[in-house]
Design a protein that fits this description.
2 domains; two-stranded antiparallel ribbon
């Protein structure tokens, strides 16, 4: 779902890690624990909190050819659909004879709308790649997608000239398309910059309470999964609210050993 997915779509990016979006039910987490044990994967940051609430789990692999690889694990993303819907429209790519499932490009673009500086140039490259590799007769749905997401100012202008009616429809939802219909590149640029600022603010607003949760959640115990000779344990913990959480670091959850911590947030 991250940089590696962008590479698969032809928008080259050097990525030092592997981002995975998972369905965080108990059966799936048990399977992940077994897979991570084979990779010698150890939690390195932000683990002891509920994946479904939006937290990420970060792991580092220690085994063989993947030694040093970082894996970032998430179960939900801001601004995109739930896992079941994303899975239904995933794209499967064959790599070295193996099937690799990646987010559909529409979902990948939405997921990249974050507060991070590096994500916005990637959205632009993804959309340019999609735009220029398509044929001379794109479908109406594809044109609408371009009109909603293109971030290179001259391209919405060109597109609006060739697909006026569709552009008028999308202009009711996107000021950048309104400016494109008027043929004003400076106004298109200003509208795109405004969009980016708004999305960055929304992303900060989404993460602000999540960053505070680690100070409030208290793990009350859990069950462990063990696989392989490495004897590493990955835990599926349960919070007092009854929800399953992610995977705590070796040695257990530090907050569980601090009884004076505040009660957990309501779920």
């Amino acid at each position: 779902m991250g940089g590696q997915a962008c590479v698969f779509y032809g928008a080259a990016e050097f990525s030092r890690d592997l981002d995975l979006l998972i369905q965080a039910d108990e059966t799936n987490l048990a399977k992940l624990a077994e897979a991570f044990a084979e990779l010698g994967a150890e939690v390195i940051a932000v683990p002891p909190f509920h994946l479904q609430r939006g937290h990420a789990v970060h792991l580092r692999c220690r085994a063989g050819p993947v030694a040093g690889l970082r894996i970032d694990l998430m179960a939900s993303l801001r601004g995109v659909a739930q896992f079941e819907e994303l899975w239904a429209r995933r794209v499967t790519i064959e790599v070295a004879g193996e099937a690799v499932d990646v987010l559909a490009i529409e979902d990948l673009v939405r997921a990249k709308k974050t507060q991070r500086d590096k994500d916005w140039p990637m959205i632009r490259r993804l959309m340019e790649q999609r735009y220029f590799e398509s044929g001379a007769d794109p479908s109406p749905d594809l044109v609408r997608f371009w009109l909603r997401e293109l971030r290179t100012p001259e391209l919405p202008i060109d597109l609006s000239t060739r697909h006026v009616e569709l552009a008028r429809e999308e202009a009711t939802r996107r000021p950048a398309v309104q400016a494109a219909l008027r043929g004003l590149p400076d106004d298109v640029t200003a509208a795109l910059e405004s969009e980016e600022r708004d999305e960055r603010l929304r992303d900060r607003g989404y993460w602000a309470p999540l960053k505070r949760e680690p100070q409030s959640c208290v793990c009350t115990g859990g069950r462990s999964y063990r696989s392989g000779p490495s004897r590493r344990f990955l835990y599926l913990w349960r919070l007092p609210c009854g929800h399953g959480s992610a995977i705590p670091p070796r040695g257990g959850c530090r907050t569980a050993r601090r009884p004076n911590r505040p009660a957990p947030l309501d779920c």
